[in-house]
Specification:
- The structure holds two protein chains of two kinds.
- By secondary structure, chain A is α/β, with parallel strands linked by helices.
- Chain A is about 40% helix and about 25% strand.
- In chain A, strands 1-2-4-6-7 form a five-stranded mixed sheet, with helices on both faces. A two-stranded parallel ribbon of chain A has the order 3-5.
- In chain A, helix 3 links the parallel strand 6 and strand 7.
- Chain A is globular and about 30 Å long.
- In chain B, strands 1-2-3-5-4 form a five-stranded antiparallel sheet, with helices on one face.
- Classes of the chains: A alpha/beta, B alpha+beta.
- Chains A and B meet through helix 2 and helix 3 of A and helix 2 and helix 3 of B.
Amino acid sequence: MSCDFLLLQAYDNIVLAKVEKERLLDLTAIASLAEALIKELDRHAKVSMVLDLSAVAAMSSAMLGKLVALHKAVKAQKGRLALAGLQPGLVPLFTITKLDKVFEIFGEAEQALLHYRKNRL
Amino acid sequence: MTCAALQILPGEAPRSGTCVFALRQSSRIDRKQELLDRVAGELLGKGWVAEADRHWLYLCLDEVVVNAMLHGNAGDPLLEVEVALWAEADRWALLITDQGDGFALADLPDADDPASLLLEHGRGIRIMREWLDELAYYRGGASARLSRLYASAPPEER
């Protein structure tokens, strides 16, 4: 299953994944995104991932579940996962579900990249 | 405002006021969006939900319809969901009923249990309760009642 709204760039052991879709509510789109992210993770060893969600205005609990799965997959290979660029309307989803305690969240993708470069695993 | 503690009750969901529309739709998830647009169109068009809350409305509709189609009706396209929108005295109420056997509160993850943080499911009801004024389940969980106070429309437009 391909994902035509995901842009991937690799910097050494950091992958920047930018989601270019406004609404992550469609289950097929969510599944294709999750599969593409896991596939990218599998291509690297001990990689950290920065997921740029700045274009995303809405997401469902199904997408939150996929993010948790991605978090576990990254952790399993000793990497780190950052979420970046959350729009204000999305922030409550993470606080309500307490996922703000699970993910490393950055205002912008560049901040996350800089942080991971400075704090290499 | 977060609504009161979640309840799953055995009987029919209460309804009062005027039925704006009622329809049945097959549990085809690929046709979910049509249903969401129909309900959201009524609520936004009448001013019963503020435009600023559009994303919350769509999110709640998505969660409840996906639950009904995929969990309640197990994704069986031969099974239907019933959707009815009611105009009550001070609020709108949406009733969504599937043909499944319902569920129990024990089936839902405990939000206060740290172990549930890393589960990959079970957050939809928590999210809906954050925005709605009322979320309750009837018919043992097979019928959801979602309601919220009218946003701003004057009574004559209801």
